Amino acid sequence: MRTLHTFHGGIHPPEHKAESNAQPIVQAPVSKRLTVSLRQHMGTPAKPLVQVGDKVLKGQMIGEPAGFLSAAVHAPTSGTVIAVEPMAVPHPSGLPDLCVEIEADGEDRWIDHAPIDYQTAPTQAVLDHIRNCGVVGLGGAVFPTHIKLGVQGQLDTLVINAAECEPWITSDDRLMRERADEIVQGIEILQHLLQPKATLVGIEDNKPEAVSAMKQAAAGKAIEILAVPTLYPTGGEKQLIKILTGKEVPSGGRPYQIGVVCTNVATVYTVHRAVNHGEPMISRVVTITGNVKQPGNFEARIGTPLDDLLALAGGALPDTNRYIMGGPMMGMPLPDSGYHVQKGSNCFIAASDALFPPEPAAMPCTRCTHCAEACPVGLRPYELQWFIRGKNFDKARTYNVFDCIECGCCSYVCSSNIPLVQYFRYAKSELMERDREKRAAEMARQRSELKQQRLEREKAEKAAKLAAAAAAKSESPEEKAAKQAAIAAAVERAKAKKAEGDAAPEAPAETIKEEA
Amino acid sequence: MSSPHIFEGHGVSGTMFRVMAALVPGIVFYVIAFGPSILISLTIASLTALAVEAAMIRLRAYPVKPFVTDGSVLLTAWLLALSIPPMSPWWLIVVGTVIAVVFAKHLFGGLGNNLFNPAMVGFAALMISFPAYMTHWPAPTVLAGVHLGFGDQLAYMLTGALPAGMEVDAINMATPLDTLKTQLHLHHTVSEVLQMPIFDVIGGKGSMWIAAMYLLGGIYLWRARIISLHIPLAFLGGLFLMGAFFYLKDADHYVAPWFHLATGGTMLGAFFIATDPVTAAATPRGKLIFGFAAGALTYVIRVLGGYPDGVAFSVLILNAFVPLIDTYTQPRVFGHLKNEEASK
Questions:
Q1: For A443-462, what is the mean pLDDT?
Q2: Is residue A433 part of a domain?
Q3: A16 in contact with B, Cβ within 8 Å
Q4: Of A505, A403, A367, A22, which is closest to residue B111 (Cα–Cα)?
Q5: Do A309 and A370 reside in the same domain of the chain?
Q6: Across all residues in chain B, what is the average pLDDT?
Q7: Mean pLDDT within A238-262
Q8: Inter-chain contact B5–A351, Cβ cutoff 8 Å?
Q9: HSE of B279, CA atoms in CB hemisphere, 13 A
């Protein structure tokens, strides 16, 4: 029996899983129009490969990975490209981003499937295949999976993150209950690529059905299914690694530095579909819940309009006035339903003021330290808040604001209702901006120094050249005398000219002034 | 409106009113032991505090309603009223409250910004300015030669007049701590002194039960997760260890440490005053240092100093050290070997 560890803090928000966790995954019908963002992952957006009017097949690559930190994007169904332009995407900036809009032809015709035999193919080929299938982390951070799976060196532990600690979300729960065997096949691909000494699957113990389904599927395999205590944010990558292995990812570091790779369970399923079936990532399981008539879980194509999914859930109730993509702790607020399913969309919550009462007006901090007691990183949010209010950003850095994972525990418990997470996001962006400016200034300084050095060097070279030329002329005494005579004569002439100029000064003086 | 989208915070007022609720059992036993005058002083302090708070908030151009109703000023008023003699003249209560709210709270920036515990600043100012009034404690009703009803107590507090033919000495007497100190100076031994009628099993008659109720209230605050036990336990520990050290050295001249826990402002101080989050240390280790030092200092002031009790002064002194304590006790952050930088 493996001993579980704990992390500091954490909270127990109302779980709200029961609304949707009994609803089996329903295949959502293909929408008439699908809007696929080319920025579905962390890193550089994919480069569009299609133009308006192009016919595309289901699974055809429509955006190719641009650079190392990037992933491919595919057509979720067959049809015609009707737009390649910036459209509304769920992003904190609220700015539109480049999307490909496809009008479905209703045939839903696949490309030829090209599975890859991961056991015989070279590792790099498998990684390239995963990259070209557009597999990214589906837990929310949408980090390109091929990079995670391509880490070099001996790996201690492969951690499969199936905690699903955010309230309301049940998509991973349903996936594990219904497709545990395929998840296990995915895990085996990861095991083959990474050769970990141990493989641990962490599932919060509020999902007993998922735990037993996974245990059954993993029976006899080198995979440990572990029920971990329900405590938000157990599903935070660093928190789950700490719970399962007792090891802490160093500040600012990545799990591989301590011999761990951590991947979301839905990502593993997608890897299986991509490798064993040759299916690129064109769909995912999405929980539609909150203020809707019949909450449920749907397997939806990437790019499906949120409105279509809401309709499948019986429609949003009339007092719905906004939506949340993701969970209520870290999810992104959406002002309306005019958005589309992203690879990172594990859940959409219809929100009303009754269901999600707006936070009361903030009062001054009384240093009650509930925030520090709840912080899973061990930060002192109340101290940080003081520094940031005073624009003392350097102090905020010293107090490790960059270690904040923005899980929202501090804001959740704050007895003065202070939006602490917003403070920290603000401080981070200010500090990053300052660092950028500092780097730019440093670069400019170096450039100017180099230029100065170059000019001085050129000057010295010129002087040396002249000196050399002069030396080469190596004057004889007669020539010297002649030169001196010539100089003396010139001086005389100048003197005479000056005496002349003093007598009639006006015009030349003005000229001189102008020149000056 | 970015994440998170859910909140459980009870608001400042939710916290303050629950702390006040935790004081209620103590107040009930106060009334039983000393008569209803404490209710009068609580009322005078509360009304003064609300009026002064409203005026200060208005002067500082803050929204009046949320700040006046946050409960913080009422709690300050209650803690002050519970710290000073319950049959104090009305103006003494008003002066103490004004000093607490205006000088200790608002001149430092109001809620959350004050360095020193406002109630204790008010108490200290009164103690230094009006020492005679501050040592006029009424005798417990079980011991008093005469019995004053509500009307008599109210009249005395408002006008200073006692019913015809009654002397002040008939209703007032020294506190248990004061009595002990005076009698020890008169070369009595502790065991002799504790035979006097003012003492109960381990404290003063009446006041022992009030202290027990404060302890009960404190346990509620801990269970309700409003306070952590770091400060109260460290405070009681500091006081107890100092007491035990002297008691073991010379039991004739130093009273047993548990006596110190049950008398004076110990329980009120440990659970309700030293735990004021605004003015107390905030890191776990810092809370332990803060509480322990305040408890030990309370003993020093009580036993070796000139004042009958030391809770207020020791808390105020430790308040001044909070920034230092907090700076040097920052806990380790996840993924850091130790907290390398914050403590620099």
A1: 94
A2: yes
A3: no
A4: A367
A5: no
A6: 89
A7: 94
A8: yes
A9: 30
**Are the beta carbons of A369 and B282 separated by less than 8 Å?**
yes
The enclosing domain of A179 has a CATH number of 3.40.50.11540
Structure tokens at B208: 């022992």
The ipTM of this complex is 0.89
Does residue A16 belong to any structural domain of this protein? no
Structure tokens at B183: 């009698």
| Same domain? A136 vs A225 | yes
Mean pLDDT of A269-291: 95
pLDDT over 80 at B240, yes or no: yes
Q: How far is A446 from chain B (nearest CA, A)?
A: 29
Dihedral, CA of residue A187, residue A36, residue A332 and residue A272, to nearest 10: 0
Tokens of B56: 């200060």
A19 and A289 Cβ atoms separated by less than 8 Å: yes
The predicted model scores a pTM of: 0.86
Q: Are residues A298 and A432 in the same domain?
A: no
Task: Tell whether the model's pLDDT for residue B138 goes beyond 70.
Answer: yes
| Average of per-residue pLDDT across B252-273 | 91
pLDDT at B177: 82
For residue B117, the Cα-to-chain-centroid distance in whole angstroms is 10
Chain B interface includes A187 (CB < 8 A): no
pLDDT tier at A476, thresholds 50, 70, 90: low
Distance separating alpha carbons of residues A452 and A450, to the nearest angstrom: 5
Domain boundary (A325, A340, A370) is at A325
With tokens 């037993």, the residue in question is A212
- Same domain for A271 and A378, yes or no, is no
Q: Of A333, A368, A400, which is closest to B333 when you measure between CB atoms?
A: A400
Q: How far apart are CA A206 and CA A12, in angstroms?
A: 12
Same domain assignment for residues A81 and A188: yes
- Predicted local confidence at residue A507, as pLDDT: 47
- Classified as helix, coil or strand, A200 is strand
pLDDT of residue B164: 76
Residues of A with Cβ-Cβ distance to B323 under 8 angstroms: none
Question: Which amino acid belongs to residue B283?
Answer: T
Q: How far apart are CA B28 and CA B36, in angstroms?
A: 9
The whole domain housing A203 covers: 26-325
Question: What was the pLDDT predicted at A152?
Answer: 77
Number of structural domains (chain A) is 2
State the Cα–Cα distance between residues A215 and A213, nearest whole angstrom.
5
Same domain, A197 and A308: yes
Q: Which of B201, B210, B184 is nearest to B24 (CA)?
A: B210
Whether A67 and A152 share a structural domain: yes
Tell me how many degrees the CA angle A85-A86-A87 measures, rounded to the nearest 5. Answer: 110
pLDDT in tens, B150-195: 888 888 888 888 877 777 777 777 788 888 888 887 888 888 878 8
Residue A502 domain flag = no
Contacts of B283 in chain A (CB under 8 A): 372, 380
| Residue A8 included in any domain | no
CB contact under 8 A, A251 and B335: yes
**Cα torsion angle, B137, B138, B139, B142, sign:** negative
Same domain, A86 and A223: yes
